[in-house]
Amino acid sequence: MSDTSLLRITGLSVDLGHGIRSTRVLHDVDLGVERGRTVGIVGESGSGKSTLAKTIVGLHRVAAGSVVFDGVELASAPRATVAAVRRRVQYVPQDPYSSLDPRRTIGQTLAEAIDPVGARQRRHHARIVEVLASVALGADAVDRYPHEFSGGQRQRIAIARALAVNPDVIVADEITSALDVSTQAEILRLLEKLQRERNLTMLFISHNLAVVEQLCDEVVVLLHGGIVEQGPIAEVFADPREAYTRRLLESVPGGAAFDVTAPVVTAAVQTMPARGRRRGLR
């Protein structure tokens, strides 16, 4: 882990629940993310992937250890500093429908993201249209409501909301898992394009190992709340050191054999631009 990492996590432990009912979900996690890199976080259900994502963006409290973003240790920094840093790290949830207020138009939602204090849609109209265009949605989306959009379109809106503040880091938490294969491919192409054009740093949480292999530069493997393996994607996938990583590569959720040539697994990545296919380029 480099001292120059944009995001540096050291000895991180996180407890969920209260009192005697609390459970340690993450323990002693060390992770560094360099600027402009895409890091995949993988592991079985319950391994701590989403907890790690939500802790990074401030949705869970740190029980021990530290989260340092661009040199700022978030647990000890002044509140105003932390608030400014948090806007530079944006979270895209798995289910955009539940995270979008059904009573607010898309324009109102994006205006609030741009300026939480003075969320006036008319004042920010140009910026709202611009950010919608960046995710391939037209200006006609501004005055519509979440229920008027498909699942893939709502995921684009969630990405637009994250982009509205020009973040340095996007934390994408299983954002393609509920989408059909063709829509998943569209979202992956969009992420690859945004990362390339904006030099975004991304943490991509997923259970789809084929997608992680193609989209990410590095991979982190979680088991029971701890990191068991991490490194460059090509190295880990070609020659995993840990037995658990080998088991992950040999099977996908549901017990199907891991086969990067299988149509269901690869349809999303086959249509990505060649430069977005990390394996073989690194």
Structure description:
The protein has 282 residues and is an alpha/beta fold. The model is unreliable at 252-269 and 273-282 (pLDDT under 50). The relative contact order is 0.15. Strands 6-7-8-3-9-10 form a 6-stranded mixed β-sheet, sandwiched between helices. Strands 2-1-4-5 form a 4-stranded antiparallel β-sheet, with helices on one face. The protein has helices at 49-56, 79-87, 96-99, 106-114, 125-134, 151-163, 181-198, 209-215, 233-238, 243-250, 263-270, and strands at residues 7-16, 23-33, 38-42, 64-69, 72-73, 89-92, 169-173, 201-205, 218-223, 226-232. The protein contains 11 helices and 10 strands.
Largest sheet: 6 strands, mixed
Mean pLDDT, to the nearest integer, reads 86
Secondary-structure element string: EEEHEEHEHHHHEHEHEEHHH
Shape, please? globular
Strand order of the largest sheet: 6-7-8-3-9-10
Helix content: 25-40%
User: Structural class given helices, strands, pairing?
Assistant: alpha/beta
**Estimated share of beta-strand residues:** 15-25%
Give unreliable regions as ranges.
252-269, 273-282
If helices are DSSP runs of H or I spanning 4 or more residues, what is the number of helices?
A: 11
Measured between the Cα atoms of the first and last residue, the distance is: 19 Å
The whole-angstrom Rg is 19 Å
The overall strand count is 10
